[in-house]
Write a structure and sequence with these properties.
The protein is mostly beta strands. 13% of the residues lie in helices and 44% in strands.
């Protein structure tokens, strides 16, 4: 009798348990999920008044420039823009985003990494040029 009660009880416990293991989400995510909507400001070393702001999302990359006011350009990943330039994601992992920008026969690869505290974005292109961007609360300010 004890065995049958234990068997019924164990069946009940197992049937009521949660299937949460199917819903486990990596809390660290990837770059485009973790930094979705974060605004990064890059200031030119040669001209401190020449700034660019970048905003990344799983679907696009938005660039703001302050050369003539605050110009916003949105590029969808893998879709050619009006200038014939295509931006594509090559790697998207925690604190690292590698993108390729193609324009005609030219192609450049940018590797973006985020500091441990998430406030600084470092970029290096395939030509070896490095830039630092800082996390800010809004573009064009």
């Amino acid at each position: 009798m004890k065995k049958s009660i234990l068997l019924i009880l164990s069946f009940f416990i197992v049937s009521c348990s949660s299937d949460s293991y199917d819903e486990i989400v990596d809390p660290t995510g990837n770059f485009l999920d973790v930094y979705n909507g974060v605004i990064w400001k890059t200031t030119s070393l040669s001209n401190p008044d020449d700034n660019q702001w970048f905003v990344f999302s799983p679907k696009s990359m938005i660039t703001y420039e302050n050369e003539s006011g605050c110009t916003k350009v949105t590029d969808l990943w893998g879709v050619a823009n009006g200038e014939g330039e295509t931006k594509s994601v090559l790697e998207n992992s925690i604190n690292l985003l590698k993108i390729e920008i193609k324009s005609g026969s030219n192609s450049f690869i940018y590797t973006l990494t985020v500091s441990e505290n998430g406030d600084v974005l470092s970029s290096k292109d395939s030509m070896g040029t490095k830039e630092i961007s800082n996390r800010v609360s809004e573009p064009c300010k």
